[in-house]
Amino acid sequence: MILGKHFTVEPSGLLTFAAGVLAPEPDVRRLADALPVLYADVPPSDRPLYYMYRGVCLENDRELYQQHDIRYDITVVLPGTIGKEYIKTVGHFHPLKPHSSETYPEYYEVLDGEAIYLFQKNNRSGDVEEVMAIEAKKGDKVFIPPAYGHVTINPGNKPLVMANLIESHFSSLYGPFQEKRGAAYYYLEGEDSKGDFVRNPRYQNSAALKLVAAPSLTQPVTAVKNKSLYEAFIAEPEAFKILK
C-alpha cells in the first residue's frame, strides 16, 4: 500500500483512497477517549487525535487476507501536544493465543512521518518489568513481540502514517494502561522544544528506559527487509503465520 498511489493524506489527517482499494470508514480516537492515560488533567473534548482504518487492502487481495486471518490496518496519528504531552495512542496489550501461554504479536511499518513505539512488559502484579522506546522513521518496520504492550507517540510536526499487520479476530486489552494512567513513561515537550521522557509515578517499580533505533531491530520475517509489509505479506503470506 503506497502513499501517493493507493491513498493520500488530507490536511485534516483523514485518508482518501484510490479506486480499487477497499477501506472502511475510520474509527476516530478523540481527546475524551484518551483522558484515562494522559499525563495531565485536561477537560474532555471532541478533538481528534488519530484515525484508524481497519482492514485496508486492494480488491484483488481481499481473499488472501481472509484466508490467512490477517488484517492490514492504516493509522494516522495527528501532530501536536495535549498540554506538554505529545499526541499518542491510548495503548494496549494483546490477549493470549488460544491454548497458549504466548500473546499475539503485531507488525508495524512507518509509511510517513516519525514514531516512537513504547514497548512495555509488566509483571503479574501489573507493575512494569521492562520498557523500551523504539525510534522509527519512514520505511522502518517494528515487530511487537509477545508479552509486550505498546503505545505509539508522534514526536514530529506532521501526521504519522503507519500500517500494521495483525491477526484479524482478537480484541486488544486497554485496562492495564488505564489502571496506571498510561505507560511507565510519558513523552513531554521540553523547554527547548525537544522531547523528554518523564516517569509515571503510579508504577512502583523503577524500570530504566532503553532507547533503541528501529533499524537495529531483528526482523523475524526476512521478507520485510526489502519490501513493505503489504508487499511482503502478498508475496509470502505463510511467513506471517507467527502473527496467529
TrEMBL record:
Keyword check for Isomerase: yes
One biological process term in Gene Ontology: gluconeogenesis
Gene Ontology CC: one annotated term: cytoplasm
Domain Glucose-6-phosphate isomerase prokaryote as annotated: residue spans: 45-191
One annotated GO molecular function: glucose-6-phosphate isomerase activity
Pathway assigned in UniProt: Carbohydrate degradation; glycolysis; D-glyceraldehyde 3-phosphate and glycerone phosphate from D-glucose: step 2/4
EC number: 5.3.1.9
Keyword flag Kinase: no
Reactions catalysed according to its record: alpha-D-glucose 6-phosphate = beta-D-fructose 6-phosphate
UniProt keyword terms in alphabetical order: Gluconeogenesis, Glycolysis, Isomerase
Family: Belongs to the archaeal-type GPI family.
UniProt name for this protein: glucose-6-phosphate isomerase
Organism, as annotated: Neomoorella thermoacetica
